[in-house]
């Protein structure tokens, strides 16, 4: 049974990132200073996030126990069920995700892929079935798919998003540059590579 808690979106994003950091951490302990150095977060923000988790995560002088901290984060922010997903849009970006092994151990399983280009559907090799986009309603229902990765051309993003919403999808990872609109019941995470690059570029000051 999942024990996820309702956290502010910014806190949840940080804790997901911290969980990945902890899983690769080579030592048994980690200090708030080390977390701060690796992430850029202030110590006070880290302590506040831990307080929101509702667990006693007081550190000691030599740091937090990585195993304990990892267990708390997995309990509080992770849904341990295997979540069925699909990829919509099999151009260069979508096609790069056709190997299910990329998602091994993640808790997510890519069940199917969709594309409006029938030629792509027929010639691309994948570890899971590929279907024409018109088949989304019945395939998504049949495969019990809850989440979608959207990598269609920008001009088609909102239209395909609307179709996904009608199928009952719970969440969409949007790889396009378009800020798609969904009802409150459908969570969207926008991960445009171009937009992300624009965010990491430091704007020169002309003052």
**How far do the termini sit from each other?**
55 Å
Category by helix and strand content: alpha/beta
Number of strands: 8
Query: Segments where pLDDT lies below 50 for 5+ residues?
Result: none
Beta fraction of the residues?
A: 15-25%
**Which strand order spans the largest sheet, edge to edge or round the barrel?**
5-4-3-6-7-8
Rounded to the nearest angstrom, the radius of gyration is 20 Å
The largest sheet is: 6 strands, parallel
Structure description:
With 207 residues, the chain is an alpha/beta fold. It is 39% helix and 16% strand. The protein has helices at 9-23, 32-39, 43-52, 66-77, 92-95, 118-123, 136-142, 157-166, 193-200, and strands at 29-30, 64-65, 83-88, 108-115, 130-132, 147-150, 171-174, 187-190. Strands 5-4-3-6-7-8 form a six-stranded parallel sheet. The protein has a two-stranded antiparallel ribbon with strand order 1-2.
